[in-house]
Amino acid sequence: MSNTEIRDDRAAGRLEAVDGGEVLGHIQYFVLESPARALVPVHTIVEPAHEGKGIAGSLARELYAVAEREDIPVAPLCPYVVGWAARHPEVAPPADPKLLQAAQEWVSAHPDRF
């Protein structure tokens, strides 16, 4: 992970861990706009050759850092991010149930997106 850069491709809805031009893993997300703005991670994927190296955790930590910088909450639907947040309450505050419900409804209304 020492040479790994994490970059936010907001247009594609991907937070990517990149090393030497190779994408090692990513979190697929969208920005919920209503009832309030929130980052909604849906999937976390790490390439098999890079599993077990802390990449997913680094991506989750950066997702919460992005949300903090933008002063918006995270409403995680991704099981990995949900578990990571439960283990790191110091940087991952609990999600608002109303935002989680709205995020679920958005995903259900856009089945071809993820």
Provide an overview of this structure:
By secondary structure, the protein is an alpha+beta fold. A 4-stranded antiparallel sheet has the order 1-2-3-4. The protein is built from 3 helices and 4 strands; from the N terminus they run ββββααα. The radius of gyration is 14 Å and the shape is globular. The chain is 33% helix and 27% strand. The mean pLDDT is 95. The longest helix is centred in the middle third of the chain and has 16 residues.
Order of helices and strands: EEEEHHH
Termini gap: 27 Å
Please tell me what the overall shape is: globular
Q: What is the SS-derived class?
A: alpha+beta
Low-confidence stretches: none
Radius of gyration: 14 Å
Q: Largest sheet, order of strands side by side?
A: 1-2-3-4
How much of the polypeptide forms β-strand, as a percent range? 25-35%
Count of separate DSSP helical elements: 3
**Which range best describes the helical content: under 10%, 10-25%, 25-40%, 40-55%, 55-70% or over 70%?**
25-40%
SS elements, strand count: 4
Please give the largest β-sheet: 4 strands, antiparallel
- Averaging pLDDT over every residue, what do you get? 95
